[in-house]
Amino acid sequence: MEKQKHRIGSKIIMGITALFFYLPILYIIVFSFNDSRSLTRFSGFSLRWYEKMFSDSSMMEAVFYTIVIAVLATIISTIVGTLAAIGLSRSRRILRSAVEQVNNLPIMNPEIVTAIGMLMFFSALGVSKGFLTLLLAHIMFCTPYVILSVSPKLRSLDPNLADAALDLGATPAQALTKVIVPQIMPGIVSGALIAFTMSFDDFIISYFVTGNGVNNISILVYTMSKRVNPSINALSTLVIALITVVLIIVNVIPIIREKTKRREQV
Considering the entire predicted model, what is its pTM? Predict the structure, then answer.
């Protein structure tokens, strides 16, 4: 009886927690189809705010810059972070531990500290703020997360795996691309997803290092939040839909591959 009560209580707590996290998202989605400007009263179904969003050039530019910077930062930081993690796995323990501690600094630092540091760094170099500074800043804070995701996969590998591939006639590039990388692919994918999410979602660092009319979605929403604009709900709904589709694809593709391999084996 007590165990049953405990299970019911646990389910109720889980339900309340899920409601607390997902009710605001559902609220945004519902009111993105609201016919009026009200953010508290639903007066009817309409697509007017989606039409207004797509006709707003500044909003479309923010979406474009957000996606382009997130994709480029993800690709570059994933390549750099993966190669760095592989290099560290082959280094001495003292060097590896020292670099890992340094790699943790951007993750543990408050974003405002990193933002001010990047602002002062670009100002000292005399680099004008814009697309390039925003991209470099995103690559900088995304790379440590990739290293952090790939490193555990490398630790679980047999350290003699690369040497065995070289002994069998593989070149260093072939040993890297055909032996090591496939074994650590789950860590690479996880790091890439984290990097994309961090870049897509970032506001504080982006706000300090951008300029010349280059804004991402976070900065745009911040500037629009000072006045009631239901187009924010439409934009947020599209972002939620995009992230949901990406997560579904990432989770479904491995399942399809596994089923295909089983069929081929049979």
Answer: 0.81
